[in-house]
Structures are given as C-alpha cells and as structure tokens.
Amino acid sequence: MALAVVVSNVVGLVFTIAFARILGASDYGSLAVLISAWIILMVPGSALQVAVAREVSRAEASGRSDAGAGVMRWLERLALATVVVALLAIPLRGIIAAVLNVDEDWAAAAVPLSCMLWMLLSVERGALQGFGEYRVVALSVIGEAGARLVFALALVGVGLDVTGAFLGTPASLVAVGLALAVPLRRRLPLHLPGVVRMGRLRDLLAGAWAPAVGLTLLFAFQELHVIVVKHEASSDAAGAYAVSAVAAKAIIWVAVGLGLYLVPEAARRTETGVDARPILRRVLALIVAFSIPPLLIFAVAGEPLLSAAFGDDLAGASDGLPWLGLAMALLACTYLSVQYMLALGRTAFIWILAVGVVAEVVVVATIGDDLTRVARAMCGLQALFAALIVAMAFRTRARAREASPAREAAPA
After folding, report:
1. Half-sphere exposure of 123 (CA within 13 A, CB side)
2. What is the pLDDT of residues 140-151, one digit of tens each?
3. pLDDT one-digit tens code per residue, 334-366
4. Of 138, 96, 183, nearest to 9 (Cα)?
5. Nearest CA among 337, 276, 312 for reference residue 20
6. Helix axes 277-310, 371-409, angle to 10 degrees
C-alpha cells in the first residue's frame, strides 16, 4: 500500500513538473489553487473511506454474512448527489472562480464535482480495504495518478490549458471508479431482505463526523501555510514557496499509503481484543525510515533539485526546503496517529488539531514574507503538535487495555 502511494506520488511529481513547465508560472499558479481547493474539499471522501473500511472490516472480523451489504446503496445515493452538485456548480461557476481567484470558470465548477467523484471512489476503496483487498486498492492508487496525468496531457494538448489540466482529475476518478466496480461487485453479498442498519448512508455519514473533522484539520494544517504566504508575499515568492511545499509533501503521501493499511488492521485487532499499538509503532518506524533520504537530499541539494525540476525562477525558497521537509515528516507522524485513533473510535485529538491550525495561520501571517522563517516556524509547530498527538495515541490504547479486564470479567 505504501509503495503504491510512493509510486502515485512520483507520478504526481511528474504531473507538477510537467505542467509547471507547460503552463508557465502564472497559469500554473491558477492550477495550483484549483488543486489546493480540491485537496481541502476532498476530506469528506477520505473520511468516508475510513468509516467504510472500519465498518466492513469489523463486520468481516465478526463473521457476519452481511458485511458490505449496504455499499451499493451508499454508491447509488452518492451518485444522485453528484448529479445534483454538478447541476448547481455549473450556473455558480463564476462565483466559485471568483472565490478561488482564477479565470477558468469551468475548471472552478469541476472542483466540487471532483470532490463528489472522490467520495464515490473512496467508498469503493474503503469497502475493498475492509475485505482485505489491499493489492486492488494499491493498484487503483497508482492507476488514478497515471490516468490523471494522461488525461490532463491530452486535454491540454487539444488547447484547454489550465482547464484541461485540472479536468484530468475528475476524468481519472471516473475511470478508476468504473474499474474498481468489478472486483467490488464480486465481494459484495447478494441482496438480503431486511439487511441491517449498515445499509443506511445517513447512518454512515453521521458516524463519520470525527474522521471528517479530524482529516479536514489535518489537511488544513498541511495546506493553509501556502495560502497565507500567497497573501503575504509577492506572486513570485509565493510561487517559489508553493513549489517547495509540493516537494516537501512527498512524505505525506507515503503516510497516506501506510494509513490505508493501519486503519482496518487496527480496527480489526481492537474488535477481537488484541492490542493494536504494535501496528502504530511499525508504521511510525516506517515513516521515519522513508523520511530520511528525502530530508538528506533537501539539505544537501535543495536548490539544484528545485532548479532542475521547476526552473531557476521557482527555486527561490530552497533555503526553507529542508525545514518544510522535516515539518511534513512530523505531520506524517501526526496523520498516522490520528488515523490510529479514528480506527479506535477516539476523538479527543480534534481540539489539539484545531489549536494547531489557528496557531499556524497566526504565526505564518505574523512572520510575513520571510520564507525561510516561515518554513522554520512550520517545523517548530509541527514538532510540538506531533509530540502531543503521538503521545495521545499511545495513551489512548493504554487506557483501553486497562479497562478491558473489567469488561471481560463483567459477564461472569
């Protein structure tokens, strides 16, 4: 799973490099804004994936014959909602474009549509995770990244420019969603009359509020500094900082891949009364190991790397790249710890993340346009909040284990 996300991230980096050069600094800035908006709004889909994986894996671990019985109904409801969102986004495309400060109205309209398509794909992936089909999910992650690049290049090639580059995203989501429908259909049970409440989408959405809020705060923690710098610094400086942030975020996508394994496995072990903390230790050790090589490269050859990839005009924030890389490695530890606590149904971490998001906006806005100081401040903030969240994750499971003997003794 983690390897699949690494490959996906490499393809994503190729996407960034290709379109930074094809579109030029100004147009790439518009594409980056559209992608950032999509990343933030895609969180409900990611939350659904967590919720679906947890529900299906728990039902599967309990030996229930109806495991996954509600998935088709969830997909049908979401498909209808996607049509509604599209019908609303088209007439409102000018307003959405104005909010994002881009000229590409149709690309702006595709942002909320892409988020709905992501929700559909996330339900499919979550169900397959719950059934233990990690290889299929991993291949879908790679396929999505590759299809996005191919579709975007084709659409830009016919003259759609920024709009075409962004429309590669919804096109790839549709293609991968259709491909995953085949293996998913084979794993779903036949329709059973009077199937359990698991088949109600509103129950699933109500139960997903914690993943939605938690993951929204995490992605805000990841993205807001770039947005604030855009307001505080010149256009060229903000573009250079955004490129450095993109390079630094590579380790986050490794953490996303590890989280795809962590969530269902932690939920399954907890459901059967087994201590899941060894899995958390294992994935945290892996993320540290994955972080070391890029951090060394950022420290030794950050400027040549950015110049070679994006051009000399976008390497102006290279001094801050090692600090941003370390900040994102720390955020990856936070991400995995949050995913672990979500798998266990814990929510106490949310208020800590909320404080962190507010602190990030205030600190970055106070520093202003000194990009290296911003990067150092981000590293300090991520270190503080990673320590708090990781410690909370291990303490949460420790308390659950202390309570378990009493629960086991009660029936006797």
Report:
1. 26
2. 999 999 999 999
3. 999 998 988 888 888 999 999 999 999 899 989
4. 138
5. 312
6. 160
